[in-house]
Amino acid sequence: MARGKQKEQAREKAQKQAENRQGGKSQLGARAAGLQLKCPVCKTPVANYKIIVQHMEAKHPKEPIPPEKDFQ
Ligand SMILES: [Zn+2]
User: Main localization of the protein (predicted)?
Assistant: First the structure.
């Protein structure tokens, strides 16, 4: 039926618009590339040094927290 097809097209259009709002897939890759720091103990990727510190305090409280310059 014509009605059902229209509905399907509308759904596809809405999905495309949602993808555009999220910046498509390329931005996802850029965001992943931003995670260049890794926890020196368990190699978990983290976004920045502050999160490393939080992660170290939470997960590896016995390990010394490396200075920020070690990650630059
Ligand atoms: Zn860790």
Answer: cytoplasm
Distance (Å) from CA 2 to ligand 1 centroid: 56
CA of 63 to the centre of ligand 1 (A): 10
Domain segments of the chain as ranges: 1-34, 35-72
Measured in angstroms, how far is the CA atom of residue 50 from the centroid of ligand 1? Answer: 13
Tell me which residue of 60, 34, 58 sits closest to 47, measured CA to CA: 34
